Amino acid sequence: MKCLGLCAGLLCAAVLVGSGCSGRVSNPAELLSFSQAPTAARVDLARLSDAKASAGPYRVGVGDLLAVSLDDAVKPRLAAEAGADVPPQIYMCRVDSYGNIVVPILGEILVESKTLSEVEGMLSSEYHPKYVNHAPNVVVKVQEYDTTTVTVLGAVERPGLQELRRDEMTLVGALMKAGGVQLNAIGAIRIRRAGSSDTTEKVNLPVKGVDTPFNDVRLRAGDIVEVDGQQPPVFTVTGLVGRPGAFPYPAGTAYTVADALAFAGGPTDLAPDYVRIYRKTSEGKIESARVNISGTGQSSSINVPVRPGDLVAVEHTFSSRTQTLLSRTVHGGVNAGATYDMAP
User: Fold this and answer.
1) What pTM, to 2 d.p., does this model score?
2) Cis peptide before 129 (omega within 30 of 0)
3) Is the pLDDT of residue 43 over 60?
4) Where do you find CATH 3.10.560.10 in the chain?
5) CA–CA separation, 342 vs 286, rounded Å?
6) pLDDT at site 93
7) What pLDDT does 32 receive?
8) What is the average pLDDT across 108-117?
9) For residues 198 and 172, is the Cβ–Cβ distance under 8 A?
10) Is it true that domain 45-56+147-229 has CATH number 3.40.50.620?
11) Separation CA 36–CA 252 (nearest Å)
12) Are the C-beta atoms of 180 and 157 separated by less than 8 Å?
């Protein structure tokens, strides 16, 4: 009876294995849709730039060096009496720690926090009509900006110390000064505030296709900005292969499903004649396609590319699971019988 049961079990396994279904592989249209699914999330550079906090017109601050151009206000007296055409006089004026500059005739003038046009209007009104007969033409430019240092690290083009003007002291301003974020910059930005190792702010970068809020953040002198980048890209092969696992996907390379299977030691004897690829899109959806392991057609493994982050699964079929189960059962039964026969 034991022999008959064993033979029946083997016959059943043979029937189940023989009747295994390979499944329908993806057609060309489905493969095209799968291949065009956006995968890696990308920073939304337009939103990043648009989010820059507007500082409005530049406002003069302590340490700035202003070039003040005056024409009639300080004309040499003899030249004025002779009616000579005297070119505008340019005076270099450093904004002192009190926010003042010193100009001819007027002496100290408070200019801190004023726009350049406000400084020009104020100087003109101070000179006229008290010192000159008509309103002078006054032009004020910033010859040298006083800057503040912050540190930008991580996935930016030019990491390191960044000298920022007063109107650039924001997160976006610092990122732009560092050459912009790299394409692999995804996830969080950490801002470590100067003077306190315990104070860290976290900001998420805007991502294309994902409607997440992003607002610029004001920085202070000495702050450290760290931009996270993606981990080194990999693809994963699981299921009925010799060496399942995660494998690196170096930049500049292009692998196919056949390549991925080769990295994983190839399909086992129980593997079906197809493989399924799973891909997470930038919108968070999981797309999949099924291709033939062998063959040379459009839907074969040698012609379907694998992207970083893909999961290549050589999945069990009903027949392979049944065969595995019966194999374990048969071997387990034989071992159990041997153990029973050896018992005293």
Assistant:
1) 0.55
2) yes
3) yes
4) 22-39+233-316, 45-56+147-229
5) 54
6) 94
7) 74
8) 94
9) no
10) no
11) 19
12) yes
Per residue in 218-238, pLDDT (tens digit) is 999 999 999 887 667 788 898
Task: Name residue, tokens 């010192």.
Answer: 131
Tokens of 109: 């003038």
pLDDT at 74: 58
Least confident span in 171-185, 235-249, 274-288, 317-331: 317-331
Where does the pLDDT of residue 174 fall: very low under 50, low under 70, confident under 90, or very high at 90 and above? very high
Cβ atoms of 174 and 151 closer than 8 Å: no
And the tokens for 167? 């109107």
Residues of the chain with CATH 3.30.1950.10: 65-144
Q: What is the CATH number of domain 22-39+233-316?
A: 3.10.560.10
Of the listed ranges 171-175, 206-210, 327-331, the least confidently predicted one is 327-331
Domain 65-144: top CATH class: alpha beta
- Taking CA atoms, 296 is separated from 135, 137, 157, 273, in Å, by 85, 80, 42, 13
Q: Are 268 and 238 within 8 A, CB to CB?
A: no
Per-residue pLDDT of 149-166, as tens digits, reads 999 998 888 999 999 998
